[in-house]
């Protein structure tokens, strides 16, 4: 049993799963909580822009570089750097290695599905499941942690 769990843990780390065991759903909740500066449970475009291009932008060039994004995301949400790398490339729609307003604007239809200029946890969760490399794999991750009990 212990050996199985250990192997399962090692296996998920080798796949680049979250070393802290956060699911994509949990990360979505954490991200919305962090971005929601006025605490109304959803993220306005202003809150999104403020968080990304002020807090995540370490060198104040009004864009979030690959290094800045990976550093911030890995430290805050404890994703594996390889996972975060793939996530960044999915977000960087124009492939210039920076997240800018151009990238954000191109993601807005997916981020704000009901077009009310706010992103809810539900909307961001759906977005992460499309953009994040673990979005399709997290069900497998839960499967691994739940399955040994029945054995
Ligand atoms: Ca808010
Ligand atoms: Ca870009
Ligand atoms: Ca919305």
TrEMBL record:
Q: Which UniProt keywords apply?
A: Calcium, Signal
Query: What InterPro entries does the record tag this protein with?
Result: EF-hand-dom_pair (IPR011992), EF_Hand_1_Ca_BS (IPR018247), EF_hand_dom (IPR002048)
Any Pfam family from its record, for instance, is: EF-hand_5
Q: Which organism is it from?
A: Sinanodonta woodiana
Instruction: Determine the domain of life of the protein's source.
Output: Eukaryota
The signal peptide, as residue positions, is: 1-16
The reply on keyword Hydrolase is no
Where would I find the EF-hand domain in this sequence? 44-79, 110-134
Q: What is this protein called?
A: EF-hand domain-containing protein
């Amino acid at each position: 049993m212990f050996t199985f769990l250990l192997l399962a843990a090692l296996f998920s780390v080798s796949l680049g799963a979250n070393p802290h065991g956060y699911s994509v759903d949990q990360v979505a909740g954490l991200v919305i909580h962090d971005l929601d500066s006025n605490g109304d449970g959803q993220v306005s475009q202003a809150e999104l822009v403020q968080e990304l291009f002020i807090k995540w932008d370490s060198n104040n060039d009004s864009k979030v570089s690959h290094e800045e994004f990976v550093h911030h995301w890995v430290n805050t949400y404890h994703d594996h750097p390889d996972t975060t790398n793939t996530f960044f490339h999915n977000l960087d729609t124009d492939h210039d290695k920076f997240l800018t307003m151009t990238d954000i604007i191109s993601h807005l239809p997916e981020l704000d599905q009901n077009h009310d200029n706010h992103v809810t946890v539900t909307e961001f969760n759906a977005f992460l499941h499309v953009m994040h490399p673990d979005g399709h794999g997290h069900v497998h991750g839960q499967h691994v942690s739940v399955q040994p009990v029945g054995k």
